[in-house]
Request: fold
Amino acid sequence: MLSKKATIDDVARLADVSIRTVSRVINDSPRVGQATRAKIKQIIEDLNYHPNTQARGLAARRSYLLGMIYDNPDALYINDVQRGVLSVCRESGYELVVHPCDMHSDTLTEEAVSFVNRSQLDGVIILPPISENNDLAGALAKNNVNYVRLASVPLDKAEHVVISNERSATAAMAEYLVGLGHCRIGYIAGPKGMKSTRERLEGFCDALEKHGCKLETEMIARGAYTFESGIECARMLLANPNRPTAIFASNDEMAVGAITAAQEMGLKIPDDLSIAGFDDSILASRITPRLTTIRRPVMQMARKATVKLIAAVDGREEDACRGVTLVPSLVTRDSTRSLD
Amino acid sequence: MLSKKATIDDVARLADVSIRTVSRVINDSPRVGQATRAKIKQIIEDLNYHPNTQARGLAARRSYLLGMIYDNPDALYINDVQRGVLSVCRESGYELVVHPCDMHSDTLTEEAVSFVNRSQLDGVIILPPISENNDLAGALAKNNVNYVRLASVPLDKAEHVVISNERSATAAMAEYLVGLGHCRIGYIAGPKGMKSTRERLEGFCDALEKHGCKLETEMIARGAYTFESGIECARMLLANPNRPTAIFASNDEMAVGAITAAQEMGLKIPDDLSIAGFDDSILASRITPRLTTIRRPVMQMARKATVKLIAAVDGREEDACRGVTLVPSLVTRDSTRSLD
DNA sequence: GAATTTTATGCCAGCGCTGGCAATTTTCTT
DNA sequence: AAGAAAATTGCCAGCGCTGGCATAAAATTC
Reply:
């Protein structure tokens, strides 16, 4: 058992070359002879040598570490993003450092910058809703930190961003519901202050109007993206003498809450009331009735974002700056049906 | 705008001391005078100086990086663990590098060791079911890697482990069901080969027998911890002419599948059939009827594990070696009721 | 007040690696 | 075959920090 880990010196000595040459092999530099390269590779293998990332980073100002900054409002979403990011990291030899933050903290920007500097991260991916914070983005840019933002809505700066067009997604949902004959529709919105809340609402609203249905003010309830708020909002909506025939909740948690509330009132879903959600979370497919919802290409977004980030880190800026937009898709299940 | 980041030299120059003294302040060494320390701290503040972790690590053989190794069978569980680990990391100045692995890979051990070495991790936390792999644990120990395992069952080596006693948890569930008057109970087990499968089953079985009820062979179905397998197993169990009055599924996903299957057969839960799960996942509280289940102290386990790990890293081995056992608790909701 | 202990600070080497350039060898020209 | 160009390799400095020891200053002892 090797009591000490092999270093580049050991490899060089055994290969009878200078460490500089070994370094070239490690870094896939072309300026190395065939035979030499093969010999060195063999020795690296035999020795089970792994270059010391810290030393590499110190010398080359690289850490091969990416960061992920997020608040924690939706664990499931984050999980998918993390998976996507990791899959690309794996392919590219990077590791991922995860870093939850409080989006409401006064020192968010400072703390995020410090995080990146402290760990010498090569770049960071910022998840919604923190990604909507332009101060942060500005501070990172100022500190020459590579970053990519994931967002559900267009941001002030269209660069370094991967977005899913949720406006068009909720529009599609509106059209789908109208197509089923619904016109009086209840809408459970997200909390004020998040861009996604407005974006989703507007997309839905506009599409509805385009088809001659108006989203009445009393048919809009403000939730908080939580199960409980979904229950309350649904109760409110359904207490209206002129009850909606369908309810769209702007996330699945609230939609499930709405289903629970409606069932408690003795309503059958989807016979007496159609309900749809947004996220296609694990809940959507497990609940009875299975929930009609909207699926964002989360994993794909995460992958794209990571590819962009690594491109920027490697100085291949070509397409790194351009924003990327992906479209969510409608998933129809059993919680919605035509009015007939 | 600082074009270059401040280094320890800058701080030392401004404070008119040697970098060694600044280093002492950074590392909270006691051997520094009051006044000097205060002055240096002030300058660090003013300069917004952050020590370079790579350089620190290279010199001190420390990275302040912890790793988390896991396969991905249960995203929700992992999420909770990650949160717990991170909360301790935050308090202790460590960052967390996440590293999913394929538990069935031939090169799992090699890859894990390489991961730790490559990134110079100070330690790793290993999640189930990978934590059950003793080869891995052995290899890590051999390489002088600090690690702590999270497990649901006693492992061969009782050291470096935080376990939740699931045997007693399923025993409690069995007693609870017996207490409700159930005696003919269906059991949906996990896949073969995982220790938790056996542990949960035995705990349940033994407790049942202690109360004079036997778990008949035809009342045991083998699932795969998935929703679909829960459906299938429940169908099988319920197809038995002498139907069970209660079904315990060894995780929530399967329990939800069982509920779905039972409802499809026209059974009312809990009136015609009691169903219980294991995990207290998000599903359990969202589904109708709300699921009776077992909650493991996941976050607490994760925290304990991390504290242990950091203690080991810091050389405070005192209690670092002793294993820790935590007990899950029964969460009774609406999916179970007394017979009669 | 000299000797001793304690406290505070500085110096040097080196952690393991890469960048830039120089040196060497090989290959190609003419 | 001599000179030029290209391919290969090596040397040195230094990335930013800490460990170990030496030194200097202050506090304590007798």
